[in-house]
Specification:
- With about 280 residues, this protein is α/β, with parallel strands linked by helices.
- The protein has a single domain (about 55-80, about 105-280), classed as P-loop containing nucleotide triphosphate hydrolases (Rossmann fold, 3-Layer(aba) Sandwich), CATH 3.40.50.
- Helices cover about 35% and strands about 20% of the residues.
- It has 10 helices and 9 strands.
- A 6-stranded mixed sheet has the order 5-6-7-3-8-9, sandwiched between helices. Strands 2-1-4 form a 3-stranded antiparallel sheet, with helices on one face.
- α7 (about 210-225) links the parallel β6 and β7.
- α5 crosses α6 and α6 (about 180-190) packs parallel to α7.
- The longest helix is centred in the C-terminal third of the chain and has 18 residues, at about 210-225.
- The chain starts with 8 loop residues before the first strand and ends with a helix.
- Bound molecules: adenosine-5'-triphosphate (ATP).
- Adenosine-5'-triphosphate binds near residues 36, 44, 64, 67 and 71.
- Adenosine-5'-triphosphate (ATP) binds near residues 70 and 235.
Length: about 280
């Protein structure tokens, strides 16, 4: 990460709520919520005023308890959810001069297909379980405008090889694979169009510890090799400690603390972060 380089992604005042709001909760300044929830009108404020920069080649970790808004934030950034309000600027897109959330759905598809990759916690969301693994990768490449079957097959084989799927299983469907292998195919698929940014949402949750370590090692290795920027969501501070250069801590839809990962681990400021860090010791 270059300390003086410009961010590759800048997010400002991102808000996402589910529900229509009421007098008690509509004004962000003096909202009276029970955690992220308005007891009067049942609106859930999943992401509130989120701001951050992601720098080229860095891994930014996002940690927080269940329901803190981590996945909603990732869904908004990948256009799986529409934001309620906010701005996001991506340096490789129109030189960072256009708010992604204001773009047409066609342009959002372009950004998803060319400039971002996402790996989901549940491989069913990221893969077509009955397509071959090569076919899964080709699908993402076709979506980005590729038509040359030979070139796509060779790129897919190269990527599957990189994530250690044996050659003789590349034509098999992910439904036949173990959880760790499915995550590795998802990673290969997400990388297929060489995106500068990868979004990783709880990608090792639910895997055995040794498989988890193996997938995290692979991601770390690829990140170093490809110098890709990553946003990595986890509820597990151990995963964040291993992977992230900087970390944002979320609680009830808000960022309560952010900084260098080492700094946060050594000297957590917010009470919630202190509890998290102590539970790791
Ligand atoms: N479609 C929806 N409708 C209503 N509320 C929602 C919806 N999606 C998410 N939420 C709420 O938004 C809040 C944040 O959820 P989110 O899934 O982003 O949390 P998270 O930090 O990723 O949690 P987990 O680690 O359990 O996945 C939760 O209170 C959740 O109930």
């Amino acid at each position: 990460m270059g300390e003086y380089s410009a961010p590759i992604l800048t997010v400002n005042n991102l808000n996402k709520h589910f529900g229509s709001g009421c007098d008690r909760c509509s004004n962000a300044e003096d909202r009276k919520l029970d955690k992220n929830y308005c007891p009067a009108c049942h609106t859930v404020y999943s992401c509130q005023n989120i701001k951050f920069d992601l720098y080229p080649g860095e891994v930014l970790g996002i940690v927080g308890e269940s329901g803190s808004g981590k996945s909603t934030l990732m869904q908004c950034l990948y256009f799986d959810q529409e934001v309620s309000s906010g701005e996001a600027y991506l340096q490789p897109y129109k030189e960072g001069g256009s708010n992604l959330f204001d773009e047409s759905s066609q342009q959002k598809r372009y950004i998803r297909n060319h400039l971002m990759g996402k790996v989901y916690q549940n491989p069913v969301q990221g893969l077509r379980m009955r397509f071959s693994s090569i076919g899964n990768i080709a699908e993402k490449m076709i979506a980005a405008g590729n038509r040359n079957v030979g070139a796509m097959e060779s790129r897919a084989s190269e990527l599957l090889n990189r994530v250690h799927i044996p050659v003789y299983r590349m034509k098999e469907a992910p439904k036949n694979f173990s959880g760790g292998m499915q995550q590795r195919v998802q990673i290969a698929k997400a990388l297929s169009n060489n995106p500068p940014i990868l979004l990783l949402d709880e990608v090792t949750t639910g895997l055995d510890l040794s498989v988890q370590a193996n997938v995290l090692d692979l991601i770390k290795h690829l990140q170093k090799e490809l110098k890709i920027s990553m946003l990595l969501v986890s509820h597990d501070l151990g995963v964040i400690r291993m992977m992230a250069d900087r970390t944002m801590v979320m609680l009830d839809g808000r960022v309560v603390e952010h900084g260098l990962t080492d700094q946060i681990l050594e000297d957590p400021q917010h009470r919630y972060t202190q509890q998290l860090v102590h539970s790791l010791l």
